């Protein structure tokens, strides 16, 4: 008999959750324009909107807040953060930013010229937005298997080397400033990249004088999957695997709000001194001094500790295990989800969940809204709404995957909460034909999924018939 395990922590403080009744949830959803991003936090029972900045910090991190050095320049807390990044990630130079998109902004402005191409293993919303705003065209070079939700492939985040080489041949290496490699790949379902693939990609880039810049936001989760799925790494620590992973890159953007286990913060790291010098000059314009980059000293203290805590093998094993706990229950119940279960979230396949709703009627947005209406669980759409519009034609980008992301915050919920989520989804699946599609009634010009508003495509304006 396999022994059950529990969380590798104990609870010292609790936050009371508000539990609305059916009518109250309906009113809150309508007020939010059927966009889960616009629902007030106090009206949410279990919040699976994102794992970004929603981590529960450790006792040591909370204690570190009290010793933060808030000096405007040369903060002691900055040097602790810089040391942690160099120790664990191995890069030579570090620029702090207020969060990951601050680092994306700096990188895009520093490295992209008008007319460039930036290949990547599937887009991410803010990353692509910064690339396009600076004149680049994003090119998806992920393997085809990533677009098949039912395919159980161990490394769906891998770059297709043939696609990548074709892009180099077609546009010329001089038009590709860097390859953006996400580890793991969020919109593919939190899927990892293999060490073998990272090594091969880096070799191609070195041969063609193209930089490899990682989106390292969930790199610790990627390292854990390598430990599990590549035989040569089974006996290595996550820490050692992570260091080798990052050695196959020239730098990274990092949102500290995920694997660094804090509520705010990020950084841009690199190995090239000239790029670092330019980044130091630019960060002053957009973020703050190079020794705080938009962060308080106390936040840098917490992030430095979080970097070390994140590579604890017991922590990351529980982290991945809790996501799988929810995912496996849904698989056992016949719910269509992206396989294999990824590192930070379970992704519902909205096309297969709601086959009666056409993709242009926004099935993922409708399913996320229906989940909140059913139980007060907040998830988010990752489909046609998130994909935005083609910058040339103005037409909707139509992704092959139309997903609802159930994103699990780190060290926040117990498996009992996951059981509640599971029960609600199974209940919805049993009455799925009652859910109707949505139409967008307000569309922001960029990153529309944050602030768009919707209305049900039903005569009476109800989401469920």
UniProtKB/TrEMBL annotation:
Identification of the protein by name: Tyrosine phenol-lyase
Family under the similarity heading: Belongs to the beta-eliminating lyase family.
Origin: domain of life: Bacteria
Alphabetical UniProt keywords: Lyase, Pyridoxal phosphate
All copies of domain Aromatic amino acid beta-eliminating lyase/threonine aldolase, residue ranges: 47-421
Catalytic activity of the protein: L-tyrosine + H2O = phenol + pyruvate + NH4(+)
Cofactor: pyridoxal 5'-phosphate
SUPFAM superfamilies registered for this protein in UniProt: PLP-dependent transferases
Annotated PROSITE patterns: BETA_ELIM_LYASE
Pfam families in alphabetical order: Beta_elim_lyase
EC numbers for this chain: 4.1.99.2
């Amino acid at each position: 008999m396999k022994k059950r395990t529990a969380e590798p922590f104990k609870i010292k403080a609790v936050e009371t959750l508000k539990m609305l009744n059916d009518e109250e949830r309906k009113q809150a959803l309508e007020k939010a324009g059927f966009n889960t991003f616009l629902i007030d936090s106090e009206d949410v029972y279990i919040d699976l909107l994102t794992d970004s900045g929603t981590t529960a910090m450790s006792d040591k991190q909370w204690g570190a807040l009290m010793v933060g050095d808030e000096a405007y320049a040369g903060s002691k807390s900055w040097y602790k953060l810089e040391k942690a990044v160099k120790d664990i990630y191995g890069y030579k130079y570090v620029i702090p930013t207020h969060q990951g998109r601050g680092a994306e902004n700096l990188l895009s402005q520093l490295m992209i010229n008008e007319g460039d191409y930036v290949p990547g293993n599937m887009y991410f919303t803010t990353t692509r937005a910064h690339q396009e705003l600076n004149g680049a065209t994003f090119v998806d070079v992920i393997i085809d298997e990533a677009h098949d939700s039912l395919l159980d492939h161990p490394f769906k985040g891998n770059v297709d080397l043939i696609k990548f080489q074709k892009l180099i041949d077609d546009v010329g290496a001089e038009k590709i400033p860097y390859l953006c490699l996400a580890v793991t790949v969020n919109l593919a379902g939190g899927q990892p990249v293999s060490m073998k693939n990272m090594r091969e990609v880096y070799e191609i880039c070195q041969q063609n004088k193209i930089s490899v810049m990682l989106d390292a936001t969930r790199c610790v989760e990627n390292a854990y999957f390598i430990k599990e799925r590549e035989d040569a790494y089974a006996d290595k620590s996550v820490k050692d695997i992570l260091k080798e992973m990052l050695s196959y890159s020239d730098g990274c953007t990092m949102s500290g709000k995920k694997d660094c286990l804090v509520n705010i913060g990020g950084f841009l790291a690199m190995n090239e001194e000239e790029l670092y010098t330019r980044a130091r000059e630019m960060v002053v314009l957009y973020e703050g001094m190079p020794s705080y980059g938009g962060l308080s000293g106390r936040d840098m203290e917490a992030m430095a500790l979080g970097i070390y805590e994140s590579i604890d093998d017991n922590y990351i094993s529980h982290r991945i295990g809790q996501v799988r706990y929810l995912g496996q229950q849904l698989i056992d119940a016949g719910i269509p989800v992206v396989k294999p279960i990824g590192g930070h979230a379970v992704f519902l396949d909205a096309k297969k969940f709601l086959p009666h709703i056409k993709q242009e009627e926004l099935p993922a947005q409708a399913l996320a809204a229906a989940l909140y209406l059913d139980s007060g669980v907040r998830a988010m759409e990752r489909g046609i709404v998130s994909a935005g519009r083609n910058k040339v034609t103005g037409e909707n980008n139509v992704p092959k995957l139309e997903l609802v992301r159930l994103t699990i915050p780190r060290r926040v919920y117990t498996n009992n909460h996951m059981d509640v989520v599971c029960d609600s989804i199974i209940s919805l699946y049993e009455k799925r034909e009652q859910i109707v599609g949505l139409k967008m009634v307000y569309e922001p010009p960029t990153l529309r999924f944050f602030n768009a508003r919707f209305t049900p495509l039903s005569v009476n304006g109800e989401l469920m018939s």
